Amino acid sequence: MKSSEKALIGVSAGSVGIGASLGFFPGFLATVLSEDLGVSKGKVGLIVGIYFGATGIGSILAGKITELYGPRKVIFADMLAVAACSFLIAIIGTYETWIISSLVAGAAYGLTNTGTNAAIGRAISETQRTLAMSIKTAGVPFMATVASAIGPWSAAKWQWENILVVNGICALVVGLAALVIVPDDDFELDESLITKSLPQKFYWFGIASFLLIAGSQPFYSWIVSYLEDSLDVTSGLAGAITSVACFCGVIGMILNGLYADRVGAEKRIQLIMTLLFLSAIAIGFVILGLVLGVWIVLVGAIIGVTAQLAAIGTMHACVVDKAPFSVSRATGVTMTGYYLGALASPALFGFVVDWTGSFAYPWSGTAVLLFAAVFAWFKAGKIEKQFN
């Protein structure tokens, strides 16, 4: 792989990671934000839900915008939006500012998703493209690893506003790097990929992706608050536990990408089902932490996060496997369900915590969603592959 290709993958990973930052920070900082902003944890969770909901809406137009202006400009635009919103939140520091910034940055995040895919798709050869996409996508959990490790601790030591300032500076650096490194070729949609009808009952992909992320998102949005509030863990240790889990997830995601390519298209959905089953079982370990202590939570978090991230990475390959001649629309159906799940899950989780006064109930509901996702992916696996 050429050095220019490696640089492109690095910038792409950085942009998808930084681009998602304002969607993850509220979860990692939920306890301190709830106190400082004077709102419930359910309302903090709503910030996360609004962010990813806005991403789903923004993704509808992001493909066309990328076609018009090219990957370089749209990635830079998203990084500029993240920087501006980060600085705005740090300066004003109100709940309303968080909500508005989540709408803006969330909608802009769709540009980075399409921009990085377009750039890598054009610049990286087919024989190395799956690995490149896996590394790029791993930028999100890697960001979560760093944020969970330093976020709660640094918020207690230096105030959360300063974290947002650093985040804004990082976004500007990545944006400027994108202007230098990302190719400026215009992205043209392959007409052969949009002329075919989707396979019958392809809506199961939307349902399956909804349940997958609805059952996965609380691991990233609420694990720190759960450790702090229910197990009396310090913010530093809570962040470290989440960081270890996310780091393991990054490694697992890349290794699973290599394995999924080897087993072939016929077995990829079975692989997703197995991974989600493991994730649901792992949540049992998280709940047992209320009785057995923090270290059983660490085991559950490592298993759960690693399995979930691996399943999410495999999901994208399965979309292409089933609808190779309608990739754009197939991706749209899948990601609509995905972001609707990301919108609903964190907020609902937080409201259930506020309503019941316990984390055990929403964690149990999350496990149910993952078991339901196993069934939904079974139905998706029955869909006949699209042929030319």
Brief characterization of the structure:
The protein is built from 16 helices and no strands. The protein has helices spanning 3-19, 21-28, 30-37, 41-69, 71-92, 95-123, 126-137, 139-158, 160-181, 203-221, 223-230, 235-263, 268-292, 294-322, 327-356, 360-381.
Keywords:
2 domains, 388 residues, Growth Hormone, Chain: A, globular, mainly alpha
What is the fourth-level CATH superfamily of the largest domain?
A: MFS general substrate transporter like domains
CATH topology of the largest domain: Growth Hormone, Chain: A
Low-confidence stretches: 186-195
Number of strands: 0
CATH architecture label name of the largest domain: Up-down Bundle
CATH class of the largest domain: Mainly Alpha
As a percent range, the share of strand residues is under 5%
Radius of gyration: 20 Å
Helix and strand content put the structural class at: mainly alpha
Q: Give the distance, in angstroms, between the N- and C-terminal Cα atoms.
A: 32 Å
User: Helix segment count?
Assistant: 16
Major sheet attributes = none
Helix content: over 70%
Q: H/E element string?
A: HHHHHHHHHHHHHHHH
Shape: globular
Q: What does the oligomeric state look like here?
A: single chain
Mean pLDDT: 83
The total domain count is: 2
